[in-house]
């Protein structure tokens, strides 16, 4: 090709690129008006399709295989459990089992299953299916069925395994025999990881395949999953509860950035958004097209004091820390009021919560006195660990740490703020390397045991008891409560436990946050559940 | 020429090998245990230990590295720890999303950038020149993150011109064939969807194009000014040739080489710059894919993702080098 024709070719290329660019721009601008029109016309679709915008994607859709909230948020609507939590609390209600009975010794649970339930693949739901699922889990491994191991004390070979046997006594009756009473047993069963899956589908698919093609009995069935983008589920026509679900389709759409997600909601691209920044709540409330939802708190954000490190091995110093920190100011400033000030290690929705406890007031003078008594009248130097990532229970660890630093300096304690990448942070904190660290916890099953025993019992030092706090009296109470079947006696035990914890002060409990969601004003009957997984079958558009 | 291309391709091998090694080492140098990240805070020690064993994390690093290389040779990019799916299988949709966005952004950047640069050089010191160069200065400096949110606010919420996030109307999703949605919708004759996809591309495209556009404009301008001072241009003008042709035909031909280099580099950088744009505009692209992998310590995905992006970067540079000789026959490769 000659020089000239090359030049011509390049020019032609430039011009054609220019034209393409121009024409597509033109089309864009001419389409703008029309495009909106179609979106409006598409309004009839919008009435039975809910687009739920959230921060991240799910990991897998087999509920027993996952531990992340984003997965359970979806599987909650695909699978059902033997007993179900209440609409906005963690009380026990009938689920796939229409009725249940507990023997007096608390060792035998009998479930009469709901008639007429089918799996999404058409298979009937019956006692055999329940037994199949429990056998699958009981013979699993920790990296696969984490929650089974954690809630039922291990697997079939383990000493600590609570479940002795699961048998189908007839077509629609299942009997559980326990090795020892487990007070939160029903609450555990109600957790979404224990959703009953279709045995036929499990037989046909590997665990990983099933995680991408889940088959349950829930009000919605799985349609499509585009990773990091969206998950589509649609109404299951043969759902056993008449008239439900009310929506035809739900699309879970991942938009990682909080502000961008709110923008998408305001423009109508999505109908419901979680992870609303507290600072945006007034904007949502002022907008007549939107409504704000508060998720009841099932979490706690706290400042842990490692009780094996000086000077925090002295309870007086730990109490002084509690007096020195102005929690109300922290909640007002960094949770923007969408949190309640914590006085106990667990939130008030959980039964057994001790509301008689007054907690520590903000009283710097008292703090100084206690430090004086501990022989630290001149104050001391410490490291204060700030969380590097936002969590529902701690939206901005860095700023909270700065406020605490400020409070502490007022009583003569010189705190240096340090932080690490998140995984490292957890690793080092659990190794007891921090003096004082910010952390939190979101409850699994809404039971006191899931907070007090898991986070503060000596059995859990090295795992979730990051403060290395040990108290034999507390340990005895918590172990007793684990097998106490009488609800009132059990709550009494937890109330006593909270008093001990208050006295020993291994933590400065800071706040129980109420995560915020926002939705289209026409969205009806949406209830934000404390567990973080919302059942969408009652939801509809006005 | 063919020989040159083959030689360049062979040179890629040590480059890519070096890259795999560096990426491998850097990732492992970062503290934090993937097993803990996967299982979460609640995990017991035994569970973590068991998972480490299954993932092969207990092997010495060189065993892990050679294992990885061996698999790479057979075209196996590894399996995602998080999703337990082969990276080969799941990477394409993300790549396609980023390709589409980058091409769209590059078309905007090149078209506007080159022309703005040319006109600025042509009418040097005019109001257009000053305006364009101030604009370009702002363009290089503006944080994409901020720009993206502002665009969403103005063009979506205030004026309702474009959708805020995503690649498509989620209520009427595109039936993916190649995962290049513009292509897919055209193949299926769904031109309404093509328009919709384009509308979704405009804001992230412009946000992503801003920096390269500004850089290209500045480079074109200075390169054009240089060329337009030369003797042959004066001759052309003396000949009475129309100014338009002098600029677009005679000058551009010689001025375009450095511009091409910049375009090549910027296209490669776009792949990396896409991560911010993809986060703000909720696009499931390669940047997001790697970002999510980093936060969950998904080693195979990080390694392979970076490797693929690096490979594309190197390939783009190769293409640019080849383009030189096409645009300017004086450049020959032997």
UniProtKB/TrEMBL annotation, chain A:
The source's domain of life comes to Bacteria
Gene3D superfamilies xref list: Dipeptide-binding Protein, Domain 1 (3.90.76.10), Dipeptide-binding Protein, Domain 3 (3.10.105.10), Periplasmic binding protein-like II (3.40.190.10)
Q: Where is the Solute-binding protein family domain?
A: 92-461
| InterPro entries reported for this sequence | Peptide/Ni-bd, SBP_5, SBP_5_dom
The record's keywords, sorted A to Z, are:
Signal, Transport
Where are the residues of the annotated region Disordered? Answer: 24-48
Give the signal peptide as a residue range, or say none if absent.
Answer: 1-20
By sequence similarity, the record places it as follows:
Belongs to the bacterial solute-binding protein 5 family.
Question: What protein does this entry describe?
Answer: ABC transporter substrate-binding protein
Which species is this UniProt entry from? Jeotgalibacillus marinus
Q: What is the lineage of its organism?
A: Bacteria, Bacillati, Bacillota, Bacilli, Bacillales
From TrEMBL, chain B:
Classify the protein's membrane topology as the record does: Multi-pass membrane protein
Q: Which PROSITE patterns match?
A: ABC_TM1
| Xref: SUPFAM superfamilies | MetI-like
What family is it from? Belongs to the binding-protein-dependent transport system permease family.
The answer to whether UniProt assigns keyword Transport to this entry is yes
Organism of this sequence: Jeotgalibacillus marinus
Q: What protein name does the entry list?
A: ABC transporter permease
InterPro entries the UniProt entry points to: BPD_transp_1_N, MetI-like, MetI-like_sf
Membrane-spanning regions, if any? 12-30, 101-123, 130-153, 201-220, 255-281, 301-324
Q: Which CDD domains match?
A: TM_PBP2
The answer to whether UniProt assigns keyword Cell membrane to this entry is yes
Q: Which UniProt keywords apply?
A: Cell membrane, Membrane, Transmembrane, Transmembrane helix, Transport
Q: Report the Gene3D superfamilies cross-referenced here.
A: MetI-like
Main location as per UniProt:
membrane
- What are the residue boundaries of the ABC transmembrane type-1 domain, all occurrences included? 95-324
Instruction: List locations, semicolon-separated.
Output: Cell membrane
């Amino acid at each position: 090709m000659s020089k000239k024709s090359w030049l011509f070719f390049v020019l032609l290329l430039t011009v054609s690129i220019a034209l393409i660019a121009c024409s597509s721009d033109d089309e864009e601008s001419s389409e703008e008006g029309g495009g909106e029109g179609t979106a409006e016309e598409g309004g009839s679709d919008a009435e039975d399709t809910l687009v739920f915008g959230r921060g991240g994607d799910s990991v897998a859709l087999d509920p027993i295989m996952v531990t992340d909230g984003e997965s359970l948020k979806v599987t909650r609507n695909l699978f059902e459990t033997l007993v179900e939590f209440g609409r906005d609390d963690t009380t026990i209600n009938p689920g796939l089992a229409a009725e249940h009975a507990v023997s007096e010794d608390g060792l035998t649970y009998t479930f009469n299953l709901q008639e007429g339930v089918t799996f999404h693949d058409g298979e009937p739901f019956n006692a055999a299916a329940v037994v199949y699922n429990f056998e699958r889990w009981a013979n699993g491994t920790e990296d696969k069925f984490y929650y089974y191991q954690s809630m039922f004390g291990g697997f079939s070979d383990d000493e600590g395994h609570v479940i002795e046997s699961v048998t189908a006594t007839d077509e629609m009756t299942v009997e559980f025999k326990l090795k020892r009473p487990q007070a939160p047993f029903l609450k555990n069963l109600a957790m979404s990881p224990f959703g009953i899956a279709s045995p036929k589908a499990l037989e046909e698919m590997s665990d990983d395949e099933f995680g991408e093609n889940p088959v349950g009995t829930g009000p919605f069935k799985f349609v499509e999953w585009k990773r990091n983008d969206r998950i589509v589920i649609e109404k299951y026509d043969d759902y056993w509860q008449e008239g439900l679900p009310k929506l035809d389709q739900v699309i879970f759409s991942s938009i990682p950035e909080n502000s961008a997600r709110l923008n998408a909601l305001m423009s109508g691209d999505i109908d419901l958004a979680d992870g609303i920044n507290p600072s945006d709540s007034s904007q949502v409330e002022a907008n007549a097209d939107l409504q704000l939802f508060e998720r009841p708190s099932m979490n706690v954000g706290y400042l842990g004091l490692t009780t094996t490190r000086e000077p925090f091995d002295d309870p007086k110093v730990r109490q002084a820390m509690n007096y020195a920190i102005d929690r109300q100011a922290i909640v007002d400033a960094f949770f923007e009021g969408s949190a309640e000030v914590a006085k106990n290690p667990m939130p008030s929705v959980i039964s057994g919560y001790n509301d008689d406890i007054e907690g520590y007031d903000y009283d710097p003078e008292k703090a100084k006195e206690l430090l004086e008594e501990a022989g630290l009248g001149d104050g001391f130097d410490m490291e204060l660990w700030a969380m590097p990532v936002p969590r529902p229970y701690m939206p901005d660890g860095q700023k909270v740490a700065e406020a605490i630093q400020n409070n502490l300096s007022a009583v003569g304690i010189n705190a240096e703020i340090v932080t690490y990448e998140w995984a490292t942070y957890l690793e080092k904190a659990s190794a007891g390397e921090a003096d004082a660290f910010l952390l939190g916890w979101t409850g699994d099953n809404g039971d006191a045991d899931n907070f007090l025993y898991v986070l503060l019992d000596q059995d859990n030092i090295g795992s979730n008891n990051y403060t290395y706090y040990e108290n034999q009296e507390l340990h005895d109470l918590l172990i007793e409560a684990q097998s106490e079947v009488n609800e009132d006696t059990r709550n009494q035990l937890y109330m006593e436990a909270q008093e001990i914890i208050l006295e020993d002060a291994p933590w400065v409990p800071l706040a129980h946050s109420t995560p915020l969601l926002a939705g289209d004003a026409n969205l009806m009957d949406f209830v934000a559940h404390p567990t973080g997984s919302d059942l969408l079958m009652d939801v509809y558009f006005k | 020429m063919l020989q040159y291309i083959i030689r360049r391709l062979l040179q890629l091998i040590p480059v890519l090998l070096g890259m795999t090694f560096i990426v491998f080492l850097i990732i492992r140098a970062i503290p934090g245990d993937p097993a803990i990240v996967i299982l979460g805070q609640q995990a017991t020690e035994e569970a973590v230990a068991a998972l480490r064993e299954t993932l092969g994390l207990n092997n010495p690093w060189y065993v892990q590295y050679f294992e990885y290389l061996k698999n790479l040779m057979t075209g196996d990019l590894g399996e995602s720890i998080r999703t337990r799916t082969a990276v080969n299988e799941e990477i394409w949709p993300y790549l396609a999303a980023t390709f589409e966005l980058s091409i769209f952004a590059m078309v905007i950047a090149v078209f506007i950038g080159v022309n703005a640069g040319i006109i600025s050089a042509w009418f040097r010191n005019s109001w257009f020149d000053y305006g364009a160069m101030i604009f370009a200065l702002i363009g290089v400096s503006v944080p994409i993150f901020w720009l993206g949110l502002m665009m969403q606010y103005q063009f979506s919420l205030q004026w309702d011109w474009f959708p805020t996030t995503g690649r498509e109307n989620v209520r009427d999703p595109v039936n993916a064939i190649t995962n290049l949605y513009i292509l897919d919708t055209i193949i299926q004759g769904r031109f309404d969807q093509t328009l919709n996809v384009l509308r979704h591309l405009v804001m992230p495209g412009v946000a992503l194009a801003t920096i390269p556009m500004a850089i290209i404009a500045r480079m074109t301008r200075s390169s054009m000014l240089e060329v337009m001072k030369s003797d042959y241009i004066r001759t052309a003008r003396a000949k009475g040739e129309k100014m338009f042709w002098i600029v677009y035909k005679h000058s551009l031909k010689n001025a375009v080489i450095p511009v091409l280099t910049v375009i090549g580099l910027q296209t490669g950088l776009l792949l990396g710059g896409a991560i911010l744009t993809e986060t703000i505009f909720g696009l499931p692209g390669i940047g997001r894919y790697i970002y999510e992998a980093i936060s969950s310590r998904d080693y195979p995905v990080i390694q392979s993702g970076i490797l693929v992006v690096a490979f594309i970067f190197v390939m783009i540079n190769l293409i640019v080098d080849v383009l030189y000789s096409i645009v300017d026959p004086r450049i020959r490769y032997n």
